Sequence to fold (233 residues):
Amino acid sequence: MRAILLAAGCGTRLRPITNVTPKCLVPIKGKPLLEIWLERLTQAGIGPFLINTHYLAGKVESFIENCPYGKDATLAYEPELRGTAGTLIHNLDFFEGQDGMLIHADNYCLADFSLFLKAHMDRPPECLMTMMTFRTDMPSTCGIVELDERGVVFGFHEKVAQPPGNLANGAIYILSPELLEKLVSDLNTAKDFSTEVLYHLLGKIYTYETTGLFMDIGTPESYDSANNQTFTF
Fold:
């Protein structure tokens, strides 16, 4: 299965670390974040990859040239950021009409991607995609989802003060060919995947809850916490 990794962000909350290093390359326990993604996805049989770039794109290019997984990666430079949905729609041909993954690659994630793939294959027939979810200690800072008894999303609560639960959207998705067609026909002007695409799919999004480590490393404090975790690769 092919995967698009969104890795073009500026990482402004992580400054001054990201003044000289793009967020996708900050090291976790000595290994660049993007390498962790590529390594774990490859181990699960996922690839090849398309990675969008923008901020400090030259450093990402140099990294891919020397990365052991670089031969399976294509870089898509964006002079101006297209947005999460915009990047996806602009590169839909990359999936060749098959199921594909869309990944916000700026989180630290040690999920079992093989189980995620299996969940997608076993999803209810009306579901057009599968979303990875995780439990968060800070639900007001995340997009919280509400599920029916089958694990299908029927409600979203995006960074509200008192969300009804702590099951958060991990911004890692497996998209079906039917959804890719819908993006072309009905949602081709969307820029943001969370706010302009997901709300059109209520009742059609299956979920997989990871029990593996999942962390937002967007601040110096959370980044330090990730480096101090006892989990191994």
